[in-house]
């Protein structure tokens, strides 16, 4: 039997690439270093059936994200607008609170059940044509005449997997930091990868689930901007009808400060901030959690601890010769137009799969479209 196509990373990009390769009739091995699929997509909550809050991405924008919208429809998922009714709050450095009556809406949509529902629906689509191996990390790639020899590491140890073709969906910085390639990729290209920030990798989110959206009853949208912190921007994260209530905030304090303060203290400070903003009911959530992406080694590198002043300009992937016939790069940071966003994860996956399938057609038919007699 021929070697499978191997997809590395089961974030949104790797899952979408695997689904598209499956549709094209290919056998796929999907390897994911983490014990869960989803990568930066992560929805969490307290206990079975409880409301889940997005600790990674929450929003998409249908007018700007056609692929996400199409996928949400294809997977028969529902979406609803971010709740923005009521006054928002501004917290000054001295703790003074100001109310802003103007509604705040940017057309942001949320997926019912959390963004993780996208990942779960994609996983449910995979047939036994796609073998998903969680807890399996790619360490190195060696180019051979008949494919790529991948060194993989799992709980049982390290082994070599031969791949006909490979799609690597790691953020460029992780690729440059963690993967050894033989023959080596040009130093200039590796430096460019090191210099490419992983979107949101330096961020952290705090979320709290409540029995009631008590802020709504007080005429507040749940949205707040703070110059005091530790959260700099807070939003309502309740379900569609507010039946299960939640707030989340981006922790604006820098990764170094967060690491120094420690997780428990930071959670206490975040809860105290919610009390300052929304009153004493905020002190007793049913569930709360903090996800610090800067401390997630399968997302962030130390270079991602430096704050970004603007959205980086991402570029389409360049694979050096002689790897071009065998390896494709995907992942949101490889999308020139939508880099950083969920849309970019899908865009880059589509492009990588298109390139790979075109290459296989050439390999099967020969460069001139005639059947390849050596196959
Ligand atoms: C806090 C936060 C908020 C965000 N908000 C939004 C938002 O509102 N809207 C939006 O559009 N986007 C948002 N984003 C960005 C969005 O999450 C990403 O664009 C998207 O999830 C990237 O998907 P990906 O598959 O390209 O990469 P990833 O999700 O990073 O997937 C890469 C996968 O590779 C795995 N991996 C790493 N190393 C190895 C290895 N050596 N071997 C095997 N597997 C490996 C990782 O574990 C991971 O599963 C946000 C991100 C964060 C962190």
UniProtKB/TrEMBL annotation:
Superkingdom, natural source: Bacteria
UniProt-listed InterPro entries: Amino_oxidase, FAD/NAD-bd_sf, Flavin_MAO
Residues of the Amine oxidase domain: 107-355
Pfam families cross-referenced by the UniProt entry: Amino_oxidase, NAD_binding_8
Family according to the record: Belongs to the flavin monoamine oxidase family.
Official protein name in the record: FAD-dependent oxidoreductase
Species, as recorded: Ideonella margarita
């Amino acid at each position: 039997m021929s070697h499978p196509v191997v997809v590395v990373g089961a974030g949104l990009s790797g899952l979408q690439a695997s689904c598209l390769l499956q549709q094209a009739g290919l056998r796929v091995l999907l390897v994911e270093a983490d014990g869960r699929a989803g990568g930066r997509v992560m929805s969490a909550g307290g206990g079975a059936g409880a409301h889940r809050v997005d600790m990674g991405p929450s929003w998409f924008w249908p007018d700007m994200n056609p692929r996400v919208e199409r996928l949400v429809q294809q997977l028969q998922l529902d979406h609803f607008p971010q709740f923005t009714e009521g006054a928002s709050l501004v917290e000054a450095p001295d703790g003074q609170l100001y109310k802003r009556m103007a509604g705040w809406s940017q057309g942001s949509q949320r997926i019912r059940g959390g963004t993780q529902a996208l990942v779960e629906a994609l996983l449910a689509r995979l047939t036994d044509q796609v073998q998903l191996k969680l807890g399996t990390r790619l360490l190195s790639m060696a180019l051979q005449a008949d494919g790529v020899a991948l060194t993989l590491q799992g709980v049982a140890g390290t082994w070599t997997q031969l791949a006909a073709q490979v799609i690597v969906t790691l953020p460029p910085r992780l690729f440059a930091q963690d993967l050894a390639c033989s023959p080596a990729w040009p130093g200039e290209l590796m430096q460019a990868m090191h210099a490419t920030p992983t979107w949101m990798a330096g961020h952290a989110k705090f979320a709290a689930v409540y029995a009631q959206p008590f802020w709504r009853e007080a005429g507040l949208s749940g949205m707040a901007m703070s110059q005091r912190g530790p959260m700099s921007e807070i939003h309502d994260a309740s379900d569609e009808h507010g039946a299960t209530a939640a707030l989340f905030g981006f922790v604006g304090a820098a990764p170094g400060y967060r690491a120094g303060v420690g997780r428990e203290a930071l959670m206490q400070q975040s809860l105290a901030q919610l009390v300052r903003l929304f009153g004493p009911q905020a002190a007793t959530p049913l569930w709360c959690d903090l996800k610090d992406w800067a401390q997630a080694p399968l997302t962030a590198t130390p270079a991602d601890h430096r704050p970004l002043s603007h959205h980086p300009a991402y570029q389409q992937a360049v694979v050096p010769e002689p790897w071009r016939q065998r390896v494709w790069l995907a992942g949101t940071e490889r999308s020139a137009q939508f880099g950083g966003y969920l849309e970019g994860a899908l865009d880059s996956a589509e492009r990588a799969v298109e390139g790979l399938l075109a290459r296989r057609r050439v390999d099967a038919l020969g460069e001139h479209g005639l059947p390849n007699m050596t196959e």
